[in-house]
Amino acid sequence: MKTFYTLLFILITFSFSAQIEGTWRLAQIPGALAVGPSQTDYSWWSSSATDIISRNCLFDDSITFNVNGDFTHYMDGDTWLEPFQGVSSEQCGVPVAPHDGAGSNTYSFLNNQLTVYGTGAHIGLAKVVNLGEISTGSPVPMAITYEISMSSDGDTMTVEIDYATGWWKFIYQKTSLPVGSLPTNYDVTFNVSTDIINGNVSTDGIYVGGGFIGGHDALLLDDSDGDGVWSGTVSLPESGGHFTLLNGNCSDWSCKEDISGQSCADPANYNDRNNLLGGFSQDTTLNLQFGSCDNFTHIGQIENNIFLYPNPTKRFLTIHCNNNINTLKVFNMIGNLVMDRNIFKNQTTLDIEYIPNGMYFVELKFDNGSIINSKFIKK
Question: Comparing C-alpha atoms, which of 366, 229, 216, 238 is closest to residue 295?
Fold first, then answer.
C-alpha cells in the first residue's frame, strides 16, 4: 500500500509539473507586468504598449522549466536592470550576477505554487521577492515562491507574488506561440498651454505621462521661449491609449491636472485623457489646454487676425489673414492630419466636401515661424 501511495504522489506531482514544463517569455501585451495593493487590484502601475519596445531587453528574455526539475533563465546578453544592481537608473544592460541566469537552478511546482531555487533565480523582475523588493546591499534569497494560474489552453501563465507591501503580477506565454508584430510608432507632438493654471507652473516644468505613455515623468515638455506653451515630441505606438498632464514631477500624481467631469476625461481610468484612444495612423499634433478639454487657439505671439468663413460649413471654407500664410494643416479631433497645403498668400479657400462631418483644427504657419491655431465645423 505504501508503494501505491508513493507512486500516486509521483504521478500527481508529474501531472502538475507537466503544466509548466517548456519555455516561456513575457506576453507582448500591455499589462504583462503590473503591481498593486492586492491580487484583485493592480492599479499602482502596469506596463504599457510602449514598454514592450523600451523594455525589449526584458520582453525577449525566456525561462525554461525542464522535465528533470532544472530551471534556466536565458537573457541573450542584456536584460532589465534596477539601481540595486549598480546602475544609476532603470535601464537595459548586461545581466548582473547573481541575477544573470548563470549557475544551476531548480524548481518545484505543486498546488499552483511555483518555487525557484538558487541564488538569483527569479521570475519577472529580479528585485521582487517574497519579503519585499531587493535594495542595494540587501541579501538575495535562495528561493522564491510564486502563485501560478494557467489559461484553459495551457499557453498563458499568470505569475503573482506577495512582496509584503503589495502584489506583483507577470503574464507569460509559451514561446511556441507566434509573436504578433509590434505596433508601428508615430511621433506625437504635445503643445500644452498653461494659461489657466491656478497658481504658478512648477519649477520642475510640465510633463506628459500615465497610461500608454509611461510614468509620471515620461515626457518633460519645453518652454524655452517663455510664451507659456510647453511642447515636446515622443514616439508612441499606433494603438493609442490614455495619458495625462502634470504640473511638476510628482511620483504620487498629486500635481496631475483635474479634468474630472469634462468631455476628454475617462472616469473609469483615473480621469486620464482620452484624446488618443482609438489609435492613430500618422504623426500627430495635439494642442491642449492644461486642466481643460478646450484646445487652445494660439502658439507664440503674432499680430495677425484670422478669419474662417462660413463656419460651420458644408463644403468650402475660406481662410483670410493679414499676413501671408506659409503652410496650412488641418487636424481632426484626435490629432490626425487630414490636409496639408503650401499657401504662400494671405487667403485661400479649401474644398472640404470629402472629409467627415465634425470639428477640425487649422494650424497656420507664417514666414516668421509663428503659428496660429483655429477651428471650424464641417456639417
Answer: 229
CA distances from 176 to 22, 123, 352 (A): 9, 19, 50
Nearest to residue 312, comparing CAs of 263, 360, 364? 360
Burial (0-12, 13-18, 19+ Cβ within 10 Å), 67: exposed
Kindly report the CATH number that applies to the domain delimited by 299-378: 2.60.40.1930
Q: Domains of the chain: which residue ranges?
A: 2-174, 185-295, 299-378
Looking from the CA of 241 toward its CB, the CA atoms found within 13 Å total 21
> Per residue in 324-342, is it b (16+ CB within 10 Å) or e — as a string?
ebbebbbbbeebbbebeee
CATH of domain 185-295: 2.60.40.10
pLDDT tens digits along 1-16: 555 444 444 444 444 4
The 10s digit of each residue's pLDDT in 180-206 is 655 678 888 898 988 888 778 999 999
Phi, psi for 130 (deg, rounded to 5): -65, -25
Tell me, yes or no, if the two domains 185-295 and 299-378 fold the same way. Answer: yes
